[in-house]
Amino acid sequence: MPLTGEGRNEQGNFIAKGEKGTKWAEYVSFGETNKEVTNETETAGTGKKFKKTAHGLTTGELVVVLELNSKTVLGEEAGGFVVGVPYYVREVSSSEFCLANTKAQAETSEAECVEYTTKITTSTKFAYVKEGSIKERKKTEFSAAANGISEDSKSHEIESEATQTAKWAIYWSAVTSGTQIAVEATTSKSLEKGDIWKLTNGKINQNAFIV
């Protein structure tokens, strides 16, 4: 579950998934917002499912909470969910889905999804984040954690293989396939094939969100 107060996310720009993020966040690439999905019906006080007609989300896909009950600041929380945190989709039906902390949980059953503990309003919005078309992921060089934060100060240049918009830095456990470890919001940049997207600094807050 998310930590609260000062332990949650003082860095304010990064939410890590999984234990010991620097051990597993071995490679970085960029992603784009494939689509945005807004909660269609205000939920009851507790539950797991969200409603959106023809949401188009598939089990195992990664979404990030963009807005949560009108809250838009990274780290803000409501009912057990956190703005900026990546979750994994469990497709319940073409008009309902729920979200899990890990891909394995999402693929297991609806019972493994996160249960919200307050009403979730129709302003709540999720971004489906998909890895962009790139030439190759780049090897990260994170330093040892200091005050709970690990930094990768080396610049990484990632070549685009298509016309696309880079919006997210995505950290992976492997150079091909692998597990998505974390997602970081970055400034949007329109790219053409052969253009370079440059990440100049990456930070993982080890206290942010561990499952």
What this model shows, in words?
The protein has 211 residues and is mainly beta. It has 2 domains: 5-32 and 132-205, no CATH class; 34-130, Beta Barrel (Elongation Factor Tu (Ef-tu), domain 3). It is built from 2 helices and 16 strands. Strands 1, 2, 3, 4, 7, 8, 9, 10, 13 and 14 form a 10-stranded antiparallel sheet that branches. A two-stranded antiparallel ribbon has the order 5-6. It has a two-stranded antiparallel ribbon with strand order 11-16. A hairpin with a 2-residue loop joins strand 5 (77-78) and strand 6. The longest helix is centred in the middle third of the chain and has 6 residues, at 103-108.
Termini Cα gap: 7 Å
Instruction: Tell me the structural class.
Output: mainly beta
Helix content: under 10%
Shape: globular
Low-confidence parts? 1-21, 207-211
Q: Write down the overall mean pLDDT.
A: 84
Global Rg: 17 Å
Q: Strand fraction band?
A: 35-45%
Number of strands: 16
Give the H and E element order.
Answer: EHEEEEEEEHEEEEEEEE
Integer count of domains: 2
Summary of the model, kept short:
The protein is mainly β. It has two helices and 16 strands.
Q: Layout of SSEs?
A:
Elements: E1 15-16, H1 21-24, E2 27-38, E3 50-51, E4 62-67, E5 77-78, E6 81-82, E7 86-93, E8 96-100, H2 103-108, E9 125-131, E10 138-139, E11 149-152, E12 156-159, E13 164-172, E14 180-191, E15 196-199, E16 202-205
Antiparallel strand pairs: 1-14, 2-9, 2-10, 2-13, 3-8, 4-7, 4-9, 5-6, 7-8, 11-16, 12-15, 13-14
